[in-house]
Specification:
The protein has 394 residues and is α+β, with helices and mostly antiparallel strands. The chain is built from 12 helices and 12 strands. It has 2 domains: 224 residues, Beta-lactamase, CATH 3.40.710; 128 residues, Beta-lactamase.
């Protein structure tokens, strides 16, 4: 097993042990046996340089900004990371450690299209609905009465489950909407792979998951996003009017559901997932679902894919030669360079947005990985980050 993966799980076990001891010390046997244990109130006290805090603060109505050195980063290293992001086309972004902002650039309140990063939000809402018994991940399309426009789904295609759609392994290559030219060009032929046997990043799967969510809960996606996630974690800018459905027309019954979001709101969502779906003393997304969603079920060129989340750890084998992330990482990923990146072992969140109204540049995954590499290297300068695994990515 890769040593970075081992360090990741060792750190997670250490955090759980610390929390368990604290619960017991507080008369926590009852809490430990309860459904959820409350975390201590958020604090604005900055961690000592280089310190790792498993009880990181959450932002209040506003984010708190601190000097990079207070969170174990070199100022020069963070400056290099921010300069790189801006040079490559980033229009806004944030670097957050221990719940505190160590760097931000651009207008972090300006909202722009998240593109496919939207899918990780849908994954979160599905997890909430699963916990409520409204959705059963192993139900098939046939059981749910899901079909599509002509050419309609075959009996074999209807054996795909909700879980397979979340994993992009449905094997349903029906025409869909809101695809990039690259996605459409790489789509396998219809009926070429039985459900569950092949990974292809498939907007039909993701759009249909959205329809299944609406059918099961009776909720509009954009309203649910506000009431179930945005409001509970204190998003400052998101409004239901920031979303608009893209109809499929004659191609498909299932619309896409893009929406706009600011960098500072996207960072709250990433921080929620860093804390296993908990915000202060409230479990927003079930912790078990967060763990399942960010686990790899398929290999990708530089890592793996979970439930509408990308990961740096492949499902099997080793990472590809283009991979440059130093530690186990997961992220939401959108066209042009929309990223919400979580590095659990460093208690680190990096958010990047590329607003096409402000630039013609784009930041693909290799540039995102270099940005995170630079941030991790700035932490290593203070002895808290990973040892450099080789030359800087190009």
């Amino acid at each position: 097993m890769d040593s970075s993966v081992i360090r990741f799980w060792v750190r997670r076990l250490q955090v759980l042990q610390v929390l368990q001891l604290q619960w017991v010390a507080a008369g926590g046997l009852a809490l430990l046996l309860g459904a959820c244990a409350s975390e201590p109130p958020a604090t604005t006290t900055a961690a000592a340089p280089g310190a790792y805090s498993p009880q990181s603060p959450f932002p209040g109505a506003e984010w708190e900004t601190v000097a990079p050195q207070t969170q174990g980063f070199s100022q020069d290293g963070i400056d290099r990371a921010v300069a790189y992001a801006k040079r490559e086309g980033s229009t806004s972004g944030m670097i957050v450690r221990n719940g505190l902002v160590v760097a931000e650039w651009g207008d972090v309140s300006r909202k722009s299209n998240l593109h496919s990063a939207r899918k990780s939000f849908m994954s979160a809402l599905i997890g909430i609905a699963v916990a409520r018994g409204q959705i059963h991940p192993d139900d098939t399309l046939a059981q749910l009465g899901i079909d599509d426009n002509e050419p309609s789904l075959s009996a074999g295609e209807k054996q795909a489950s909700v879980r397979m759609l979340l994993e992009a392994r449905s094997g349903v290559y029906h025409p869909t909407v809101y695809e990039t030219a690259e996605m459409e060009a790489s789509k396998p032929p219809r009926y070429s792979h039985p459900p569950g046997t092949f990974w292809y990043y498939n907007n039909w799967d993701f759009n249909t998951v959205g329809a299944i969510y609406g059918q099961a809960t009776g909720e509009d996606f954009y309203k649910a996003l506000k009431t179930e996630i945005a409001d509970p974690i204190g998003m400052q800018d998101y409004r239901t009017s920031d979303g608009r459905y893209v109809p499929g027309g004659a191609a498909t019954r299932y619309p896409a559901y893009p929406f706009d979001m600011s960098a500072r709101d996207l960072a709250r969502f990433a921080l929620l997932y860093l804390h296993d779906g908990r915000w202060r003393d409230r479990q927003i997304v079930p912790a078990e679902w967060v763990a399942e969603s960010t686990h790899s079920y398929s290999d990708t060129p530089t890592g793996g894919y979970g439930y509408m989340w990308w990961t740096s750890v492949p499902a099997s084998g080793t990472r590809g030669p283009r991979a440059s992330l130093l530690l186990p990482t997961f992220w939401a990923d959108g066209y042009l360079g929309q990223y919400a990146i979580v590095v659990p072992s460093l208690d680190l969140v990096v958010v990047n947005l590329v607003d096409s109204r402000l630039t013609s540049k784009r930041m693909g995954q290799s540039k995102m990985e270099k940005l995170v590499w630079l941030v991790e290297s700035a932490a290593n300068a203070q002895g808290i980050g990973p040892e450099p695994g080789g030359p800087a990515p190009q």
